[in-house]
């Protein structure tokens, strides 16, 4: 997978670009899974063969370890309120996919493949806004993602909310199998708040660009002078944001036929007592 940047996520969210997991990523994740499979034999490992939280002191028998992960996912699907937006949900999946692709979770690579398919096919889990505080992860929200991955719950599909089972049958998609600790690996992280933050950042950047464009257009409408956004003037202020806006306005207005150049208009010899155009 290409190095994840804000620009890459923006292209996936707003330009319908696709995710493509490369072989090296899947190989790295599989190596981690195989390591955990071997290492966890005859050992006590939290969340693999123990309960969770205050139940961690209780050992889970081998025959119940897979059921433990399903129970974890289903028991945390208690979100309430409005669903996250499609952009927020897709961004959260991308953020979780990025974390799991690092190969430190011991998760089976089939999880990443299915998450990729959900993003690329715009089959997005219904994840509710409220119910989790992010203290040890966005547990409730990520549980709703995990619920979709095991083929349960509901998803947004072609503008409607449908059962995951029904959509998977229509799209010929197989839910993941639980192997060791897939439930815990998917749920225990802050990818939802990260995904929402990324969407907010993208929209803020879009708003800044719109604001700069409108400000530049206003300068053309009133046929202003160019010096207020000049580089020397704005470098006198130790303010990165001000310099950034001035630079963007300079780029936008570089070929303007309406904005006046102060040096050409006012720094030449002038003899009149009253100037027709505004000096300031």
Compact summary:
With about 280 residues, the chain is mainly alpha-helical. The chain is built from 12 helices and 5 strands. The chain is about 50% helix and about 5% strand.
**Can you identify the CATH superfamily of the largest domain?**
Fumarase/aspartase (N-terminal domain)
Poorly predicted parts: none
Distance between the termini: 53 Å
Text of the CATH class of the largest domain: Mainly Alpha
Rounded mean pLDDT is: 93
What order do the SSEs take from the amino end to the carboxyl end, as H and E?
Answer: HHHEHHEEHEEHHHHHH
Strand content: 5-15%
Major beta-sheet overview: 3 strands, antiparallel
- The total count of helices amounts to 12
- Helix vs. strand class: mainly alpha
The shape, in one word, is elongated
- Tell me the number of strands: 5
Can you describe this structure?
With 280 residues, the protein is mainly α. It has two domains: 193 residues, Fumarase/aspartase (N-terminal domain) (Fumarase C, Chain B, domain 1), CATH 1.10.275.10; 45 residues, no CATH class. It is built from twelve helices and five strands. The strands form two sheets. Strands 2-4-5 form a three-stranded antiparallel beta sheet. A two-stranded antiparallel ribbon has the order 1-3. The radius of gyration is 27 Å and the shape is elongated. The mean pLDDT is 93.
